[in-house]
Amino acid sequence: MPQEPSQTSPRQDRIVRLVRSQGYMANEDMAQHFGVAVQTIRRDVTYLAGLGLLCRHHGGATPVSTVENLDYDARQILNSSAKDAIGRYAASLIPDRSSLFINIGTTTEAFARALTNHRDLRIVTNNLHVASLVSGRADFHTVLAGGQLRPRDGAILGATAIETLSSFRTEFGVIGISGIEEDGTLLDFDLSEIQCARTIIRNSRRVLLLADHAKFSRHPMGRVGNLEDIDDLITDRPVSEAFQRHLDAAGVTLHLAENNA
């Protein structure tokens, strides 16, 4: 299981991006690139590999898979404090007596946990864990999508799930994502997840995308959509100037959730 993370440093974020762009980087080359000792790079690579952001090899590092997501237990731990902060911030954007979709993911589960002080919500979800988190509230009316249950993470997928989601039109769609390209392309690993996310986007009046900073370093091969498909991005670190320009062009509001961990 990955080690307990705190926050990655700016250099570690740049290491992830560099390895991703090059495909493989030797520790010595990274040390020269960043102007630090090889031992420092080795520690960084070991830490990042423990978070599931890189694959460590003798003498260097390669990117993580673009075709397979991290295990659910690893994703629960990875950047958990940032996800909690994002979840709390996103919850503050939802008024009482609202209707909303909540999709698959550990960040959307953090959002569901943050709905404690809300009243009279109407929730439609294909996430078994989200349904469990809100099930104790008598004033929450929750619809759990039918379909095939994926035991490893509580996702409910397939044609029946899509049909259930398509039967509703809500005020808010709260979605997570596995990766975001610098040009604003939204990415995920599993085609069934992508189809469910697209259904939620189509049937929501306002779409909130919840994504911690690590999602900008991950590049799954499945395309969910673009920034034009969402209305709000809630993340935990400032974005690059280039990405901010894409947000502005798409009319997306950026929200930075304060992470006090």
UniProtKB/TrEMBL annotation:
GO terms for MF: DNA binding; DNA-binding transcription factor activity
Q: Which Pfam family is one of those matched by this entry?
A: HTH_DeoR
Keyword NADP assigned to the entry: answer is no
Q: Which Gene3D superfamilies match?
A: 4-hydroxybutyrate coenzyme like domains (3.30.750.70), Winged helix-like DNA-binding domain superfamily/Winged helix DNA-binding domain (1.10.10.10)
Q: Domain HTH deoR-type spans what residues?
A: 8-63
Please name the InterPro entries in this protein's record.
Answer: Carb_Metab_HTH_regulators (IPR050313), DeoR-like_C (IPR014036), DeoR_HTH (IPR001034), NagB/RpiA_transferase-like (IPR037171), Tscrpt_reg_HTH_DeoR_CS (IPR018356), WH-like_DNA-bd_sf (IPR036388), WH_DNA-bd_sf (IPR036390)
The UniProt keyword set, sorted, is: DNA-binding, Repressor, Transcription, Transcription regulation
Q: TM segments?
A: none
Domain of life of the organism encoding this protein: Bacteria
Keyword Transcription assigned to the entry: answer is yes
Full protein name: DeoR family transcriptional regulator
What organism does the record attribute this protein to? Gluconobacter aidae
